[in-house]
Amino acid sequence: MGKIKNISLKQITTKFKKPFHVTNSISTEAINIRVFTELESNVIGVGEASPSFRVNGEEINALLSMENFLNTLLNGEDVKSFRKCFLKTSKLLATPSLKAAVEFSIIDALAKELGTTPHIIFGGAETSLETDKTVSIEPLEERVSDTIEIFNEGFRIIKVKVGENLKEDIEAMLRISKETKGAKYIVDANMGYTPKEALTFEREMYRNGVDIAIFEQPVAYFDFDGLKYVRFHSHYPVAADESVKTPMDALRLIQNEAVDFFNIKLMKSGISSALSIVELAKTSNIGLMIGAMAETSIGITQSVHFALGVGGFKYFDLDTIFLLNEEKFEGNFIVEKPFYRIA
């Protein structure tokens, strides 16, 4: 009764509460795809894709056009043999967000068939996490005031976007650190700096005692040598984000000793590849962080259940449910800012 009968896709558009600005990109809305995998037992598993042209080269209409292909690929497969399904979905290299959504919908359908949760299917390692909340690139005073508001909400890990104006980024971070003492910061340049600019920023932060937990993707995704250069000259741990999409990326970064952390995003890798990256990281003593694109609460459910099921993640950047203007919270987890718990 666990065989796939039909897969359907539905476009979902959700506005951001305010424009979300990262290096060289501003978003006012999230256009995502819900994936519904129906079994012969009439159980329906649900996943969500958050496509990104900037990171993955994905286009929403191209993904929506794949509905018939997905049915041809997977109809008749038994979700109890989900690894067999993943052997097929792992070929969706050009559409990783759709790959993630389809794979999670299969896991979700299996969990419902068995009367459990995806968290348990993934291993049930942990039950709660502490997420950060993000400050996007904004005018200086707005960045500072937004950070103070986030701190007053109870968040003690704050992600700060930088990478477009080095001088202003330094000034903003020094002000932010002064106004929110006791917080830790994940500083994300989204590939915006050269290696020398990254180290100029890093030295100013260290000289002024700013508590940076992770310096994320300071240089271009293809510049593995630049990442290594920054890592070996930085007082702070350096993380790969855009540089680590596939297990092959992860292996190369490990071999080059280029980073201290991987920021895994299901939307970059899909679940099947993310599982491999996690094991490579754990074997190589690389720290783990999990992030998101622009997922709604349905999409964030995927990352919550994955990260807590697999276990071993130290930092969690799963805050888009606070940034998007969703009509209704639909996540399968409990929110107690800044913590999430498995329902």
From TrEMBL:
Mg(2+) binds at D188, E216, D241. One of its GO terms (molecular function) is racemase and epimerase activity, acting on amino acids and derivatives. This is Dipeptide epimerase. Pfam families: MR_MLE_C (PF13378). CDD domains: L-Ala-DL-Glu_epimerase (cd03319). Keywords: Isomerase, Magnesium, Metal-binding. The active site is at K161, K265. Its EC number is 5.1.1.-. Binds 1 Mg(2+) ion per subunit. Residues 141-237 form the Mandelate racemase/muconate lactonizing enzyme C-terminal domain. It is an enzyme of class 5 (isomerase). Its cofactor is Mg(2+). Belongs to the mandelate racemase/muconate lactonizing enzyme family. SUPFAM superfamilies: Enolase C-terminal domain-like (SSF51604), Enolase N-terminal domain-like (SSF54826).
